Amino acid sequence: MRQFLKYVLATIVGLLLFSFVGFLLLIGIGAALSSSDKKTTVKENTVLKLDLDKPIEERSVENPFKGFGPISGGGDAIGLIELKKALKEAKDDDNIKGIYLQTESPQAGWASLEEVRDALVDFRQSKKFVYAYGETMTEKGYYLASVADKIYLNPAGDLEWNGLNAELSFFKGTLDKLGVKAEIFKVGEFKSAVEPFIREDMSDPNRKQVNSFLNSVNDHMLVRVAQSRNLRVDSLKRYADNLTIQKPADALRTKLVTNIGYQDELESVIKKQLGVDEKKKINYVSLSKYEDSEKIETDSEGTGSNRIAVIIASGDIQSGKSGDNSIGSETIVEEIRKARLDDKVKAIVLRVNSGGGSALASDVMYREVQLARKSKPVIGSMSDYAASGGYYMLMGCDKIVAQPNTITGSIGVFSLLFNTENFFKDKLGITYDRVKTNTNADFPTGTHEMTPFQKQTMQRATERIYAEFTGKAAAGRKLPIDSLRAIAGGRVWTGSQGKAIGLVDQLGGLDDAIKLAAQTAKLKEGDYRLKYQPRKKEFFEQLMMSFGNDEEAKIQAQLGELAPYVKYMKKLKTMQGMQMRLPFEVEIR
């Protein structure tokens, strides 16, 4: 009887809890729906407040539950396309008098920062002010802030100016301890994606290429900062070598910043600029509110009956459907095909932000690009990364546009299998045995050592894919095969270097690629609309996602600085088999 009553009570409590949660959910949905129709009114004498200390991705994900506590989910990332559109609108908006820029440590690649920086430079042509403030600033943050009229650094703050650093992680020791052996098959001296599993440090070729592209990114940054702040490049290099910037006063003395001051002091300057009484508040509008007020709709943008399809592909390359952080060949092929068959679409821009992935999926998407080129211009646009499989997707385009600090190239192939026989036997006591109808029926395998013949077969397959990669790249870039292979071998290049050696046609951002597409299709400005694909997720699609498990966020919260290593080990599951990837997991800091 007691057991029965316990179950009854538990059921009642569960029903009450479910009803309560459902009630809160209905309130949240109602509030989100009602607020979606309300547009922010931008008052006269308003300042656009840009907080860029967030992840910057290709496109933003609208979050209808933002601000609703436990059901708020994610969606805090800034969309690069939406941000640039907002800056373009603000430039001509008479109610916007200037920008208050907060950019201490933006979470973005260097090519994305380049596009944001160019948009800020364009905004300044309106003669409106751009003031930047930071308690601390990384090099990435300062790169954006360096375009400002005034740069305020907190008196107790810090400006990082010591050069760029690329640090790679190696897991050979971990695999040795676990008794796991990596079976490696690769083509290309510089194809170093497998090095973390077989080495404890960088090989000489890998060190050479990292040093080359890192200095290319750094040199470009120094030139642009020097131009903006009216400084000498050699002076900026000396400041970094000597750790000259030890305190805010050093940043002021070297003219990296214009003022040492607190936030309220900068706001006093803004009030004077606006003619606002010191006792009154400044009319600020946030980026998200301004996007809403200006009705910035990037799914369909511009005028005219003709269209340019802008297809966004961001993340690791895989077969199947695209995810939030992955490029699915099925999804991208479908989008390219729709654009190819749509008579209203006169040109296609394929925007790629990827370090690569599945060789098969890359080739499937390459094929669809080739089909599209037969009927209309296809222009490739490189974001932070368009390397290996990411380059494969674009190499068949009519033209390729990249930022100077885009990471590209890495034309090479590797195959990776893990022999876990000793791990299962020695650590878990699990052994395997097998019966086969044919000698190689168990090929390939990870439960025991492969035979020399099987390993030779894997290597030949890897070499065959490399031959196809380089052959198609040579044809697409109109280069002799020997010339193409001389710059291939898995080597990584920046956009600037890629243009010099023929991998890239033009330096610039997404807007430049769109202009080139219009010119190639003989479309004049105002004669076409932009259609961004794939479409953004609808409200209820995002609703379902907001209740999903955000695995990455949980890993980050629980493990902190160890999170990247756990994420990388999980990623190994997708790396087995034939791969076209960047030769390392690297973040330039």
Explain this structure to me?
The chain is an alpha/beta fold. The protein folds into 2 domains: 46-65 and 75-162 and 243-292, 2-enoyl-CoA Hydratase, Chain A, domain 1; 306-431 and 442-544 and 551-581, 2-enoyl-CoA Hydratase, Chain A, domain 1, CATH 3.90.226. Helices cover 44% and strands 20% of the residues. The chain contains 22 helices and 23 strands. The strands form 5 sheets. Strands 10, 11, 14, 16, 17, 18, 20, 21 and 22 form a 9-stranded mixed β-sheet that branches. The chain has a 6-stranded parallel β-sheet with strand order 8-6-5-4-1-9. A 4-stranded antiparallel β-sheet has the order 7-19-23-15. α3 links the parallel β4 and β5. It is globular, with a radius of gyration of 27 Å. Mean pLDDT is 86; it is low at 67-74 and 545-549.
Quick overview:
The protein is of the alpha/beta class. The chain has 22 helices and 23 strands. The strands form five sheets. Strands 10, 11, 14, 16, 17, 18, 20, 21 and 22 form a nine-stranded mixed beta sheet that branches.
